[in-house]
Specification:
By secondary structure, the chain is of the alpha/beta class. About 40% of the residues lie in helices and about 25% in strands. The chain folds into 2 domains: about 10-90, Arc Repressor Mutant, subunit A (Orthogonal Bundle), CATH 1.10.10.10; about 95-285, 3-Layer(aba) Sandwich (D-Maltodextrin-Binding Protein, domain 2), CATH 3.40.190.
Length: about 290
């Protein structure tokens, strides 16, 4: 196929080529743009004639990229993303909504206390939250901005630390060491791990056990014993005096609370600035 033109092909042809290459077929690209398969095929044929190169191999079972097509696709994708991002930066409107998902305990302990400061920074932004009952639900959640607990290494997602996880003995005012310990089941280090670090041979007996750190902290606020509580999640109770840290060693962990989003989702400066402001508010209360 001889080269017929030089310069930049029409943008419409490039967008259809990118979709067909990304989705692996003309039919899928047609559905994405609301076109017929014949219209997609015609645009790609026009692009190939313009470039003087075949970009797809047409076979009975479908199409596949040629070597030239495989080389051209990432260049077109990068260029389209840059054009979209720069157009949004120059002409786009400021984001009017921030929607964040997370475990109910994280929304309650981290997001709610940060809202006043964030809304003061962003008075025209509407905030929406989606609370999950289980961590596994976050993988299926459509809300792309999420608060997660862990080590910040989720495939395909960027993550910025809100606060590292620190565990410390805490209790309601008037409850001292020697009261029953409140046990917490799950992935966090427990009382036995803390005792090794603190050099304590024998722990007070415990009579209640929870699988939620939020429930364990609530029980401690009610005077039911001493909890090895999350300092970031208990920050509000500690600041108001409903809980007090005991004069005992704390236990630092390798985990933390993170604000995360898909790597390819935040494209414009305005979106990044909105997330940065939200992160600043979250860090102010954690």
């Amino acid at each position: 196929m001889a080269k017929k033109n030089v310069g930049l092909p029409p943008l419409d042809w490039l967008r259809v080529f990118e979709a067909a290459g990304r989705l692996g077929g003309f039919s899928a690209a047609a559905r994405e743009f609301g076109l017929t398969q014949a219209a997609v095929s015609q645009r790609i044929g026009n692009l190939e004639a313009w470039l003087g190169r075949s970009l797809f191999v047409r076979e009975a079972r479908g199409v596949s990229l040629t070597i030239e097509g495989e080389s051209y696709l990432p260049l077109v994708q990068d260029s389209l993303r840059a054009l979209e991002r720069n157009t949004e930066d120059l002409f786009g409107k400021s984001p009017r909504e921030l929607r964040v998902a997370g475990l109910s305990s994280h929304i309650h302990a981290l997001v709610l206390p940060a809202l006043s400061a964030f809304l003061e920074m962003r008075p025209k932004v509407r905030v929406m939250t989606d609370s999950m009952a289980r961590r596994s639900s976050l993988e299926e959640e459509r809300t792309w901005l999420q608060i997660r607990y862990g080590r910040g290494n989720w495939a395909g997602r960027k993550a910025k630390l809100i606060a590292p996880e620190i565990l410390a003995p805490m209790a309601a005012p008037g409850v001292s060491w020697g009261a029953p310990v409140i046990e917490l089941r799950g992935e966090r280090p427990g009382w036995q791990d803390w005792a090794q670090v603190a050099g304590i041979d024998e722990l007070p007996a415990g009579r209640i056990s929870f699988d939620s750190v939020g429930h364990a902290i609530t029980a401690a606020r009610r005077g039911m014993g001493v909890v090895l509580g999350s300092v970031p999640l208990a920050a509000g109770s500690l600041q108001t005096g409903r809980l007090c840290r005991l004069d005992l060693p704390e236990l630092k962990t390798k985990d933390g609370y993170w604000l995360t989003w898909p790597e390819d989702r935040v494209r414009s400066k305005r979106q990044r600035a909105l997330i940065d402001d939200f992160l600043l508010a979250l860090r102010g209360v954690a």
